[in-house]
């Protein structure tokens, strides 16, 4: 759903009829029930706003959703697959939360992963570069429970040891190889009905990859790091799918203008 909203709704002052969203996701084999449930959950979480026109319900992005999608777009298309500009600095986040805040601890860890952090040891997470985590801490109400520092490795600690301890590079590489197995072929996803379906699946797969990629320093990665090829494949296919997918979406989507 985030892929769909990011490609076809972000940046446009429109709301989209739920029935036409269901038609789009049917092309990917997603049931009407699943789509309606997802839209309802997103509305309850303040990511979507409902609008009525006659008997139809339309959904539009809220400012919160727009912020989330803009951040995802930046990570997907502007950050790059490999960190070649690292200056040796690390951001460290230490936290300790009581058991009755287990859900908040889970949310914190999830957002730290998205921000490129990995667990160095219990209650201590690190990320390469200087990261601004104020929004994460403030959003979860954890100012009194979190300590944030910037640091550099000092003897006897080696940067390579930090990478090895906090990040599973073999697992990260395996995810990229699995992505390439699916998409780096002469005819990717031939069972899908059209380029709109392929576009949404491609964007979703790529978003899931970058969500889990801490953007580690290039000098501590193998020279044949598969993220480089995966990014090339993604950009090539995204360009190829863009026009036919947008043309089809324009025919399928029932939109309600929200601007003046």
UniProtKB/TrEMBL annotation:
InterPro entries tied to this protein: PaaX-like_central, PaaX-like_N, PaaX_C, PaaX_trns_reg, WH-like_DNA-bd_sf, WH_DNA-bd_sf
Entry superkingdom: Bacteria
Signal peptide boundaries: none
Pfam families attached to this UniProt entry: PaaX, PaaX_C, PaaX_M
Gene3D superfamilies reported for this sequence: 3.30.70.2650, Winged helix-like DNA-binding domain superfamily/Winged helix DNA-binding domain
Annotated Transcriptional repressor PaaX-like C-terminal domain residues: 167-248
Location of the Transcriptional repressor PaaX-like central Cas2-like domain: 84-163
Coiled-coil annotated residue ranges, if any: none
Residues of the Transcriptional repressor PaaX-like N-terminal domain: 2-63
Record-given protein name: PaaX family transcriptional regulator
Species per Swiss-Prot/TrEMBL record: Nonomuraea composti
């Amino acid at each position: 759903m985030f892929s769909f909203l990011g490609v076809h709704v972000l940046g446009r002052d429109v709301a989209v009829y739920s029935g036409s969203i269901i038609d789009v996701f049917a092309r990917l084999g997603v049931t009407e029930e699943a789509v309606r449930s997802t839209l309802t959950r997103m509305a309850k979480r303040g990511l979507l706003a409902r609008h009525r026109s006659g008997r139809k319900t339309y959904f539009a992005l809220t400012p919160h959703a727009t912020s989330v999608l803009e951040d995802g777009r930046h990570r997907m298309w502007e950050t790059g697959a490999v960190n070649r500009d690292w200056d040796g600095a690390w951001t460290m986040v230490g936290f300790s939360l009581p058991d009755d805040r287990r859900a908040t601890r889970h949310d914190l860890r999830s957002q730290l992963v998205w921000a490129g952090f990995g667990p160095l040891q219990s209650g201590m997470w690190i990320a390469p570069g200087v990261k601004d985590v104020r929004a994460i801490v403030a959003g979860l109400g954890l100012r009194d429970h979190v300590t944030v520092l910037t640091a550099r490795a000092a003897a006897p600690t080696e940067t390579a040891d930090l990478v090895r301890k906090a990040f599973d590079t073999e697992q990260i590489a395996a995810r990229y190889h699995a992505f390439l197995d699916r998409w780096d072929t002469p005819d990717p996803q031939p069972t899908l009905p059209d380029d709109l379906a392929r576009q949404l699946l491609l964007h979703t797969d790529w978003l899931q990859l970058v969500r889990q990629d801490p953007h580690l320093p290039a000098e501590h990665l193998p020279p044949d790091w598969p993220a480089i090829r995966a990014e090339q494949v993604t950009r090539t296919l995204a360009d190829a799918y863009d026009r036919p997918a947008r043309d089809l979406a324009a025919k399928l989507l029932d939109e309600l203008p929200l601007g003046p």
